[in-house]
Predict the structure.
Amino acid sequence: MPDAPAPPQMASPKLTTMMMFILAMFIMFDHNLRTMLGGLVGILLEPLIGFDHDLPLLTLALAGLIMVTFSIVVRSFFTDYVAMARSQKVMAEFNKELRQARIDNNLYKIKKLTEHQQEIMAKSMEMTTQQLKLMPATLLFIIPIFAWVSVFVSGLTDPIISVPWQPVVDLNATNVLPNWILVYTLVSIPFGHVLTRTIRFFQFKKKLDEMDDPEKGNEAT
């Protein structure tokens, strides 16, 4: 009896993410598309954080905080940071043992470890794949905000700001990247790092509380 046809395969997370990045590049480099998308998003964001173009640095900071907060909070709902830390610990210990076995030329141990290598790497890749699956969803939120910030900055009548490391900065000037992207990134990255560590802390704390009080863990499930 012939085998049943395999069910259609969904696009891989890597392919979907790559397509989203290509879309992002189109939007960023196509002025008309970027202006159209930025204008649509501006209907909502302009009254909220536009400040009549009087406080561009604050607008950039708030746009960065909104973007980062959404991305990290959405990712945290689908990411088990405790399991991720455990997987990273297992992988680190495995690599340490395999490296030592090779130094000692312990062929038996190398063979045994190599047999388990694929299983360990598969578990690690499962975590990475989960992150890739979430990236397109977050990009759908990030790209429009990024487009609006670009339109917002290009429309400034006075794009000159002062930052701690430079008294005069033209947001529309370019040094490798436009200055507004550098300012936007410098605000977003530290905040994102702090927010991620905070969420991880509460996830670990919740896990420890469940270990101390099993009944609390059963109520949560």
User: Anything to note?
Assistant: The chain has a mean pLDDT of 80. The first strand starts at residue 160 and ends at 163.
